[in-house]
């Protein structure tokens, strides 16, 4: 007699986890998610938005907590859309967070590769259609506002910049405030909406969220870091003849601080918010920068990465007719003996000689006298 044993070997890479998401939405409602995410305020049919400053209540959680609408921005949707807006993450990642909040374990809600598989529409009934907010073609979407006076003062104090520099960023429409992932933040962006990066006003890092690790800066979904934040100002005010190209949000604020303090209304700060894009500048941005004078402020890193990136940017800028030079931070010194690594380091603690040198040579000499164009 022959016995046949059948062995089934799971193929995790071909297996997709299925969840009855519509049923979970009936159980886990927006008011509970609001509390779980630690958002400010109290949900209700007429309440203040947890995503922006809202003096007159213009936010609504309705249909027994299943849907929401922000009448101030036009945004709205179901509980997963609510999570996506609160955490500034994509729909897939928001679904994964939703499953975690609903008590579905990470192992159940992920495949072997760690990517959540959303059920195919044919295999799960669709919930009642919800209004979706319009998105920029490049995907960056965030409720924005100018912040309270306290927000602006806190930012100026913590970043060691003048309150006038904060006002300058607001006037240029490159600096704004918002609630991101449940925290009050300052953000850098511009009118193109191609890139936006947030940092917490309390100076703390963002906690882990889904696949995102702890981080000082949170890049909003849809952002393209090849876009220099601030360059879109040239569409509205093309009179700027000199551009100050810096790396990172803190250096951008420092550039605002010094340009305002030195009353250099002919210069426009722009910022590359990282080197993770192969250091290339977006071609559309290069066209806006064409033919202008550009001074680059590379980070004085021990590995030379800042200067390497700056030289690649300089090569691109030369190709569109720009006159380019690089600022050397190694010539400056702090009173406490610590090295100067970037423009942000120059906002406080320089020795007397370096303070004088900075005032004389930080920016290229003006080629004409101009008044504030904004």
Question: Can you describe what's shown?
Answer:
- It is a single chain.
- The chain has helices spanning 21-27, 30-36, 79-87, 91-101, 106-109, 149-159, 163-172, 233-236, 249-261, 283-289, 305-319, 352-361; strands at 59-62, 67-70, 76-78, 175-180, 183-188, 197-200, 217-219, 242-247, 267-272, 293-297, 323-326.
- It is an alpha/beta fold and 374 residues long.
- It folds into two domains: 16-123, Zinc finger, CHC2-typedomain (DNA Primase, Chain A); 149-361, no CATH class.
- The strands form three sheets. The protein has a four-stranded antiparallel β-sheet with strand order 4-5-6-7. Strands 9-8-10-11 form a four-stranded parallel β-sheet, with helices on both faces.
- α3 crosses α4 and α6 packs across α7.
- The longest helix has 15 residues, at 305-319.
- The chain is elongated, with a radius of gyration of 24 Å.
- The model is unreliable at 1-16 and 106-139 (pLDDT under 50).
Q: Could you give the count of β-strands? A: 11
- Following the backbone from N to C, one meets helices and strands in this order, namely HHEEEHHHHHEEEEHEHEHEHEH
The average pLDDT is 81
Helix content: 25-40%
Task: Note the gap between the termini.
Answer: 93 Å
How many individual domains? 2
Largest sheet: 4 strands, antiparallel
SS field, number of helical segments: 12
Give the percentage of residues in beta strands. 5-15%
Structural class: alpha/beta
Strand order of the largest sheet: 4-5-6-7
Low-confidence stretches: 1-16, 106-139
Rg, Å, rounded:
24 Å
Q: What sort of overall outline do the alpha carbons produce when their principal axes are compared?
A: elongated
């Amino acid at each position: 007699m022959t016995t046949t044993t059948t062995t089934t070997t799971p193929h995790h890479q071909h297996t997709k986890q299925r969840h009855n998401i519509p049923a979970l939405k009936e159980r886990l409602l927006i008011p509970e998610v609001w509390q779980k995410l630690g958002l400010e305020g109290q949900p209700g049919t007429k309440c203040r938005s947890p995503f922006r400053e809202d003096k007159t209540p213009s936010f609504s959680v309705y249909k027994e907590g299943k849907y929401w609408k922000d009448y101030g921005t036009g945004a709205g949707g179901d509980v997963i859309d609510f999570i996506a807006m609160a955490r500034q993450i994509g729909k897939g990642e928001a679904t994964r967070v939703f499953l975690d909040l609903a008590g579905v374990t990470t192992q159940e809600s992920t495949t072997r590769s760690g990517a959540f598989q959303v059920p195919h529409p044919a295999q799960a009934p669709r919930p009642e259609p919800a209004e979706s907010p319009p998105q920029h073609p490049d995907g960056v979407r965030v409720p924005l506002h100018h912040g309270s006076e306290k927000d602006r003062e806190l930012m100026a104090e913590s970043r060691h910049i003048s309150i006038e520099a904060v006002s300058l960023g607001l006037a240029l429409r490159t600096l704004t405030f918002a609630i991101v992932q449940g925290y009050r933040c300052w953000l850098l962006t511009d009118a193109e909406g191609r890139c936006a990066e947030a940092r917490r006003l309390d100076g703390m890092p963002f906690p882990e969220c889904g696949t995102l690790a702890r981080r000082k800066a949170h890049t909003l979904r849809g952002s393209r870091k090849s876009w220099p934040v601030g360059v879109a100002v040239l569409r509205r005010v093309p009179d700027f003849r000199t551009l100050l190209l810096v790396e990172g949000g803190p250096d951008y604020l420092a550039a605002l601080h010094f340009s305002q303090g030195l009353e250099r209304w002919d210069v426009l700060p722009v910022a590359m918010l990282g080197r993770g894009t192969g250091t290339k500048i977006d071609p559309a941005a290069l066209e806006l920068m064409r033919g202008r004078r550009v001074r680059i402020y590379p980070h004085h890193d021990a590995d030379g990465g800042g200067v390497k990136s700056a030289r690649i940017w300089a090569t691109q800028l030369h190709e569109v007719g720009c006159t380019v030079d690089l600022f050397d931070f190694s010539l400056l010194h702090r009173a406490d003996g610590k090295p100067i690594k970037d423009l942000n380091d120059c906002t406080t603690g320089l020795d007397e000689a370096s303070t004088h040198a900075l005032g004389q040579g930080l920016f290229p000499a003006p080629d004409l006298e101009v008044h504030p164009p904004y």
